[in-house]
Amino acid sequence: MTKLAYLECPTGIAGDMCLGALVDIGVPLEYLIEQLKGLGIAQEYELQVEPVHRKGQLATKVHVRLLQKHHHGRHLPEIEQLITSAKLPSRAQKWSLEVFRQLAVAEGAVHGIAPEKVHFHEVGAVDAIVDIVGTCLGLDWLKIDKLYCSALPTGGGTVKAAHGRLPVPVPAVLKLWQMRGCPVYSNGIERELVTPTGAAIATIATDFGAPPAMTLHKIGLGAGSSDLPIPNILRLWLGESRGQESEIRNQGVNISDVNSCIETIAVLETQIDDLSPQAIGYVFDALFAAGAVDVFTQSIGMKKSRPGILLTVICHPEQLDACEAVLFQETTTLGIRHSLQQRTILPREIQKVDTEYGTVRVKVAWMEKKLVNVQPEYEDCAQLAKKHQIAWREIHRQALHSWYTQLEN
């Protein structure tokens, strides 16, 4: 099973809300405190936790209490040194560095300076370090395999910052959304709902949008500081995906006893009318090498009466960026549409049968314990047909005959 987490953010996301949701779901506060000591800044803050109500709902509020009146800001290299020297679990360290790097890149782009020159101002530096590293520690402690996040509300109004009053969403948040391609919307609340720290944490999500298909086990509620028209709570969903066929077999379960499962799949589409047909085969190979599940083309008529093709790629969400990069690099397209869809998968497994000419793999699929499809693998049949100079369909026929003979016996 793949362990999944989903950040549901109806009132936005901030670092302390993430910490609250993680503690609420079961991450020990003592573990976070002990691990954070490795950063060497324990004398600058303390963590406090309290249960609070938001519009009648009980949630967990985490406070980062500052112990010093004056705090020096830190640049990215200094923060990276703190993280790499802290002896954190490997995934927590990796995620923490990724989040801070994304935050520094966004701030640098806004101010027109290199990420290494970005200065994380005053007390915000301490808050950001504790919130980001603490969140990554909590996700690692929960053994999360994939993190997903909902679309994020834009908020509105203005907020006081180190450089004066800024419109909401603040420039760094907008840049992070742009960099990561986050879906956003307005929920009508004119407040700062997504902080730069919260937006940066969200960048490590595998994807954004509706919750992934999962079996839900726990919910953690992390409270925000303000009182809003709706409960100011970030909800952390914790669950497991409905296992894939290989995972089911690894647990020793009979595949024919398993019902169909639903998974989230990414679909990429682009129309092309100015690429040599000779390149299409190479594009197919490159896409499959990048992790595509399937690739296909359709003939279409385009503007100016030009014949063209619609190229469609199906892949898992974690391979979306890699497949998109192949399309931009290997074709002439200037734009790619992508969406997330749900697909139902039948339980299936690969079995082997012997024929007069050699061994052939056969894909077998069930639906509600009933056999619905038996198909010899094309490549195996083609290889034997070429080797023995015999018709492909004869190899295919023998493989099917052998499989059904085994079934009867």
Secondary structure elements and pairings:
Elements (H helix, E strand, L loop, with lengths): L2 E6 L6 H11 L3 H8 L8 E10 L2 E10 L7 E2 H9 L5 H22 L7 E2 L1 H20 L4 E4 L2 E2 L4 E4 L2 E4 L3 H10 L3 E2 L10 H7 L4 E2 L6 E9 L9 E8 L4 H6 L10 E12 L4 H13 L4 E8 L5 E9 L4 H11 L6 E9 L2 E8 L2 E10 L2 E7 L1 H11 L3 H17 L1
Parallel strand pairs: 1-6, 6-11, 7-10
Antiparallel strand pairs: 1-13, 2-3, 4-5, 8-9, 12-13, 14-16, 14-17, 15-16, 18-19, 19-20
How would you briefly describe this protein structure?
By secondary structure, this protein is of the alpha+beta class.
Give an overview in words.
By secondary structure, this protein is an alpha+beta fold. It folds into three domains: about 240 residues, no CATH class; about 80 residues, Transcriptional regulatory protein pf0864 domain like (Alpha-Beta Plaits, 2-Layer Sandwich), CATH 3.30.70.1380; about 60 residues, Ubiquitin-like (UB roll), CATH 3.10.20. It is about 35% helix and about 30% strand. It has a five-stranded mixed beta sheet. Strands 15-16-14-17 form a four-stranded antiparallel beta sheet, covered by helices on one side. Strand 19 and strand 20 form a beta hairpin. Helix 1 runs parallel beside helix 5, helix 4 packs antiparallel against helix 5 and helix 4 crosses helix 6. The protein is elongated and about 85 Å long. This is Putative nickel insertion protein. It comes from Gloeocapsopsis dulcis AAB1 = 1H9.
